[in-house]
Structures are given as structure tokens and as C-alpha cells.
# Entry
Amino acid sequence: MNETERRPKVTLEDLLQLKRAEFPPVEFWSEFDRTLRAKQLAAIVETRPWWRSWTARKALVRVCMPLGATALLAISFSSVRIASVKPQKVLAVNNEVAVRAPMVPAQELAVPESSVAAAATPAVAMAQTETPADGSADSFTSVRTAPSNGISGTTSPEQLLASGTATVKAAGQALAQLVGLQDFVGTSATAARSAVVEPLTQVATPRDNRRTRLLAYTVTFDPHAADSSAAVRSRDRVTHRLSDEAIYDSITRLGLSGDRVSIKF
Amino acid sequence: MDVASKALQKTLVVSPERQLEADSDRIIVQRVQAGEVAAFDNLILKYRERVFGVVYNMTSNREDAADLTQDSFIKAFQSIHRFQAQSSFFTWLYRIAVNSTLTHLRKAKLRTFFSFEKITDEDKTAELVNQMTDKKGADRDLYIRELQEKLNEAMMKLSIKHRTVVTLFEIEGVSHEEIAEIMNCSVGTVRSRLHYAKQLLQAELQRYINP
# Structure
């Protein structure tokens, strides 16, 4: 008898049916029931964490989506805001310099124009704003917060620039009111800058002093002359084109004797 | 007819007995959901052997199967209020058991200890065994034991999903539609997996079975 003939008639389905008959003994089920009962009681007694309860999960799922979306939106909005605020900060610094001028105490600005002109210089203004007067602190704050209120919600550079310009104008007006100028020229930043520079041009240089001193010897001023102003103008016109050396040389040709003045050409 | 009943009928269209069983289970579940906790014991007594059989044939380990069966019943008890009768309780419970077993098998892939249950000597089984072999006494038992061992080895060579399909269909007698619902896949996928798994088993057991 060969191997094929000795092989029993077993199919795969028979073998699988045989597995259906595999059952544990009866005593296994008694132990199974006892353990299951203990686990069931433990599950009833045990307090599950709040996040594992179905309602909590449902609520979390319901909340997490909009919460996450809101957080993402807020982060992106704040990052965009920060990125757009950088140039605004630069403007704010400039505005602050311009706005700090009104911080000069009113009692100091009320005294002579020379001190007002000195206070108008940036260095002096900054030095004075380090110790602001109590009375001017409020006005400073209000002027300083004005541009930020105007800028809120606008992020484009043009709008930032416009708001910065408005701030400078407001600062100029405030400065003009404090100084006492009714007609503040254009209330623009350039006008304010020119107002700041102008006192320096009025200061006489050593060259001008020397020129004036030398000319005092050359021209005799006659208070009784009918057209003294014309004489002064003609003197200025003549001496304007002469250099210092030329004027000095001309003095050597001058001579004073009594009430006469001789000039050699 | 509500949506839940339609969904249930779609699943159980092949088996009217299952429909009756599902209806009776639904009543018990409603009692449990209403607060009658003791009614859940009826479901445990009704399904513990079947759930254990599925888990045991998937794990081939008695202790693991017992633990996983108990855990499945505990999970079903804890989540009974979520059961909305859109499928039969039997399908829902099987899904919990299969998912727990799949998770366990993925975690314990490297440690597999086989244990074999003794075949109950019922009339039908005895007839089947007599048909398989003409041996008597100890030789017969030894031969059956060898067949069991080889079948388990072949089953363990299948992937977890193929093993689950074979267990549910060939051993537990669950329909294709119910397996598809339990495993959350299509009926075609179930049939394909079953066909492939049987081919592999026949290839592994060709020395012991007739083609």
C-alpha cells in the first residue's frame, strides 16, 4: 500500500471544523466568570479620567477643532502683525523725537526767545525731555498714543507713513502753541527742521566779526548824512566781493589825519 | 422602519436566525442601557464561548484568550450606552473583541505560546474524527493532536487579518457581510482574503489533507 492510499480522507474544512470542537473544560468557565465579575466590579467602582468619558471626548473633539483653528489664526495674525510693526517702530522712534519737543516745561519756554531757540535744538530738547515736568506729561502721552490708535488695523507702509506724518504735524502744532508762534510754517517736518536750524545762521562767525571791525576803520559813518542807509548798502556791496586779505591790504593804504581819511588806490 | 433597523437588516440579510437573535439582544441591551446592570450577565452567558473561540483561534493561547475575552466584555459593558443598534449586538461585540485581539497580537508579536484545548467528544466531532482516521485508542488521540498542532502552526503563518477572516468564517460561521462590518472592510476584501488564506493553509497542510 503506497503513501497516497494510506492517507486519510481529510479536507481543510474538516480540520477547521475540528477546531470548532476545541473547548476549554467546564472548570475553566467558572474561573472565567469569577475573574470577569471582579473586573466588572472594578470597572464600575473605578473612576475613569474625565478625558476618557465619551461625553468629554465628544466635547473635546467639538472644542478642539475651532480652538485649534483659532489658535492658528491668532498665531499667524500676530506673526504678520509683528512683521509689519518693525517699520512702524522706526517711525515711532522718529515720532517720539519729534513729539518730545512739547515735553519742554512751559515755564522754561515762556522766557526769552533766545532760550526758546536754544530749546528748539534737538540735543537740548532731548536733554530736557529726560526730566519732563508733571504738567506736560499728560500732553506728551496723549500725543504719543495718537499715531498708534490711528495705525491700529492698518499695516500698509503708505498708511504707516501717513500716520507718521500726521504725528509729526501734531507735534509741530503742539510745539508752536507752546512756543507762542501763531503761524507755524506749514506745520511740516521740514518747516520744523528749518526753524531749528535758523538760530545757528544768526550767530556771527569770527570771520564776520573781523570783517566788521576792519570796515569800521575804512568807512566813516556820518549820522547827519541824508542817505545813510544808501551809504551802508553801497559799502556792503563794495566789501562783499573783497576777501579778508584784500580788505587788510586796503587798510594799509588808508590814512587818518585829523578829521580826514586818505585812501590810496 | 428606522435607519438602525435598515442598517441591521442589510447586515443580517443572509441569516433570519441572526435577525431574531439580534432582536432579542436589542431588548436586553435596552434594559442594560436603562440601568438594569444585571441583564448584561445574560449577554455574557450567551456569547462568552463564541467570543472566546474567536479570540482563542486568533491567538492560540488560552490565557491570552481568556483575558482578551474578559476585557472585551468589560469594554462592551462600559460603552453599552454608545450602542445605537445600527448593527447587531453580536457584530458590535465581535468587533470589540477582534480589535482588542489585533491590538494584542501586534504588541505581542514575538512571544507566542501555543496551548491546545482538548477536543470535546461530542457525537458530531466523534463522527468527524472517525472519518479522518481509523486508528483507535492512544494512536487516534495522538494523530488528532498532531493535526491540531499542524493546523495551528499553519494558522500562525497567516497574517493577522487573514487569520481573522478564516477564524470568523470557517470556524465561527460568521457571514461575509458580518465579517466585513466587524473588520471594517468590503465584502470583496473579505472574500479575497479568505481565498488567499485557504490557499496558504492548503499549501502548508498538503501532507495531511486531500486536495
Observations:
- The longest strand of chain A covers residues 254-257.
- Residues 54-99 of chain A form the longest helix (46 residues).
- Residues 206 and 212 of chain A are 10 Å apart (CA to CA).
- Chain A is about 70% helix and 5% strand.
